[in-house]
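Appendix C: a fully annotated inverse folding record. The material below is reproduced so that readers can follow the format used throughout the book. The structure is listed first as tokens, followed by the designed sequence.
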């Protein structure tokens, strides 16, 4: 029976050694489709009725005949389809509305910048591989892959009979075209920076594609989540996106939202359940709350603590560690923030405990550099550097030493559609007053923030979140001097040198030590004031089930279904 919630009041296996990494939360800017070299994870702790932001590893050289020893790259994606195919037929059908906080910046999957865009188009596009809800790489358009022992050759076997939304079967030509486009081999302009290492993409037979790269990188395999699109489609994707995902594109209206329809020929048997999903853009926290309570939207993520309290009892409110690093980002190129003493003073002046308690209900994880604690072996706890509570006297001392005994004026630009960041800004403004810094908030629309702050770097300070894939390098790559995603203009020669060593290192333990060194440099230099990894608190209509949290910034609607 056809059902709809409109108007109702209800809702690599190889990765594990590297896990989990990040793009950008509310005010979330990601790495423009770029993985461990230039982008902007979330631990899966929720129960079965449970989305989100975006990737790592592998490794043996095959000779011309392909006769050498090779290692398996990933496991088959079978568990979800097996469970789905066993579900009762009445779980299928219906439509829901998902509230999202920002507009789409591009429907071209290779050019999308914002994490908020990627959380949506995850449902439309797939790469050769993709992440699952446990942070592992699973096969998608590829049914299998191998990586040569020296890490320089990747061989992908295409899954049988995977179809694009236009009905055409995916071919080796489509894969070759897609990889050449994102790597820059097609026109000299790489769209995903990590994949510019690709030297060649060769079709061995109709179901086998071989990719050769310039240098080995244990995190590169995660970059192959890059969307496979029809050969030659190129710029047409931004107007008429065609992928292989569980849902196909129906329509898009700027500032309103995007509508997706069930892909009846999706390769993963039994999925999806829903006939239609609408992602509705809601720029106001107050509006989001009213629409949840009124039943005009059925699902909304990244709630503040006050929103959670208002929805208790009427909705399922579930929580999971996010893959977002929230920070008071400081533009290191503008005065007086170009003085490390001033940046350090701000770090001492901010009370992270108070921010976490007030905005996130105490559910966030406090941090002092750009790395997720869930990345475990790659993470180093640096919270003792500045402390989690404010040290007003130390902050004043540093400001006086820098020539600002009476403080200074500071404008903090924040995307107004993200209530979590707006509330964080309000707390920080009050905290900075104690050390003489007169901070004011400049609230801007998301498109303005993306254009002027993230891309244009025309700002002094901002509050946002950065997300990443499931590789530790994903969060740290953007702080290289020449990274086009280095929107804080951080410059440190030692940092650049160590990052290069980390990327070249094949020993996971040694690579992890390099990553810890990078975190310490970023912290000591107070590149920005890193605040917390917020908990992702999501409101879901009581009549929905199957929603999953991911260790990357996506909203997977393929497993969601209506229970009555």
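Designed amino acids, in order:
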């Amino acid at each position: 029976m056809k059902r709809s919630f409109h108007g109702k009041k209800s809702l690599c296996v190889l990765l594990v050694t590297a896990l989990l990494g990040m793009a950008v939360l509310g005010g979330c800017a990601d790495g423009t489709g770029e993985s461990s070299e230039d982008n902007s994870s979330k631990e899966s702790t929720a129960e079965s009725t449970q989305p989100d932001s975006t990737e790592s590893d592998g490794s043996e050289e095959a000779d011309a005949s392909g006769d050498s020893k090779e290692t398996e790259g990933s496991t088959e994606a079978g568990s979800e389809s097996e469970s789905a195919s066993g579900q009762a037929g009445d779980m299928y059908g219906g439509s829901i509305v998902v509230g999202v906080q920002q507009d789409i910046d591009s429907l071209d999957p290779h050019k999308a910048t914002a994490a908020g865009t990627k959380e949506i188009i995850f449902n439309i596009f797939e790469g050769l591989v993709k992440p699952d809800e446990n942070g592992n790489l699973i096969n998608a358009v590829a049914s299998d892959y191998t990586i040569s022992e020296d890490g320089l050759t990747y061989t992908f076997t295409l899954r049988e009979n995977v179809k694009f939304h236009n009905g055409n079967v995916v071919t080796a030509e489509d894969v070759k075209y897609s990889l050449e486009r994102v790597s820059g081999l097609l026109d000299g302009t790489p769209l995903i920076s990590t994949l510019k290492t690709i030297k060649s993409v060769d079709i061995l037979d109709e179901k086998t594609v071989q990719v050769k790269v310039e240098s080995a990188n244990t995190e590169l395999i995660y970059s192959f989540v890059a969307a496979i699109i029809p050969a030659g489609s190129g710029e047409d994707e931004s107007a008429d996106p065609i992928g292989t995902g569980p849902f196909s594109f129906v329509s898009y209206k700027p500032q309103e939202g995007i509508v997706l329809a069930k892909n009846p020929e999706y390769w993963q048997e039994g999925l999806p359940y829903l006939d239609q999903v609408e992602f509705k853009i809601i720029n106001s926290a107050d509006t989001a709350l009213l629409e949840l309570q009124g039943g005009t939207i059925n699902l909304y993520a990244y709630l503040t603590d006050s929103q959670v309290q208002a929805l208790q009892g009427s909705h399922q409110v579930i929580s999971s560690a996010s893959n977002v690093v929230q920070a008071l980002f400081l533009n290191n190129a503008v005065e007086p923030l170009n003085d490390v003493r001033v940046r350090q003073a701000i770090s001492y002046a901010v009370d992270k405990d108070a921010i976490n308690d007030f905005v996130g209900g105490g559910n966030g994880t406090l941090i002092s550099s750009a790395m997720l604690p869930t990345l475990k072996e790659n993470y180093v706890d640096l919270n003792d550097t500045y402390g989690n509570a404010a040290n007003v006297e130390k902050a004043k001392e540093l400001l006086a030493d820098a020539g600002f005994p009476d403080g200074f004026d500071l404008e903090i630009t924040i995307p107004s559609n993200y209530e979590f960041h707006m509330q964080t800004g309000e707390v920080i403004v009050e905290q900075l007053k104690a050390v003489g810094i007169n901070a004011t908030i400049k609230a801007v629309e998301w498109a303005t923030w993306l254009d002027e702050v993230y891309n244009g770097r025309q700002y002094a300070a901002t509050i946002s979140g950065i997300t990443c894939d499931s590789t530790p390098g994903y969060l740290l790559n953007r702080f290289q001097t020449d990274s086009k995603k280095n929107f804080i203009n951080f410059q440190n020669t030692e940092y650049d040198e160590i990052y290069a060593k980390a990327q070249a290192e094949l020993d996971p333990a040694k690579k992890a030590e390099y990553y810890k060194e990078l975190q310490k440099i970023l912290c000591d230099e107070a590149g920005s004031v890193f605040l917390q990894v917020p908990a992702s608190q999501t409101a879901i209509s009581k009549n929905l089930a199957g929603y999953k949290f991911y260790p990357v910034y996506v909203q997977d609607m393929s497993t969601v279904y209506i229970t009555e």
